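Hello again,

I reread your note about wanting to compare the complex against the isolated chains. To keep things tidy I'm splitting this into two emails, and this first one only covers the full assembly. Below are the input lines as submitted, including protein chains and any nucleic acid or small-molecule components. They are followed by the predicted structure of everything together. The single-chain runs will come separately.
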Amino acid sequence: MTVTRFAPSPNGPLHLGHAFSAIVAHDRASADGGEFLLRIEDIDGARSRAELADDFRADLAWLGLTYREVTPQSQRIPTYHAAADTLRDMGLLYPCTCTRAEVAAAAVASGPDGPIYPGTCLRRGPQPGVDAAWRLDMKNAIRLAGALEWTDERRGVQTAQPELFGDVVLWRKDAPASYHLAATLDDAADGVTHVTRGMDLFLSTHIHRLLQHLLGLPVPVWHHHPVLTGPDGRKLAKRRDAPALAERRRAGEDGQALAADLRAALFATGISLSDTINQQS
Ligand code: GLU
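Full-complex prediction:
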């Protein structure tokens, strides 16, 4: 059975871009008589707000999307710990005490998530008594995994290139598991067969494919859809002034009519679609 998901983080309201993403995921599942899941990605405790998650549920219903909600990330922490332990036991994680500023100052190249880590803490070894994040030893992980492929429904078969990211953080200092580790584990646990999300996350899939291999997880198909852009050509984002769905809902707008407009790609004035890989938000 086809299973898709919409996985918003409750750190800001949903906007039109999210509505579009949810519709794509919902319709991809229903085209096959499958199931559409809602997963609240509230791993970042300090920034997550429960009332926003309530809004998300109401927003989806307002758009006419039927979903089944699965366990939110905040209740899955032991699973993330177990996976991190597995990777640590495989010798693939190392502690890193560098600050963001130190990483930025020492980095010689940039990847999709920002500066590529120059491996300072891999060379100098653990620093006892200092809070550490845990990074993936990418060279070793790739050596172990060998060549990997993954399939995007729109763009076809891809050769995994996790090296683009360098030694990514999989366990954070300030919050539990990173997005990459948590989302990969959750999609497997939720039985997601088609990971639908925007092109802005296309390159992240290289990491997710590697993690699936290392952790022995099933490999889904991906469907990276174009993202809605504002008049400035940039992705609509929660932090900028894109109209919140909750505001439109409370103002009495017809959500199902909006969903129909989005399906017909009749977007509000000045809003268009971009198919650019990993457009920065
Ligand atoms: N939680 C992520 C977000 O709000 C989505 C992650 C995903 O779809 O893989 O952007």
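For quick reference: Residues 3-75+185-280 form a domain with the Rossmann fold fold (CATH 3.40.50.620).

B.
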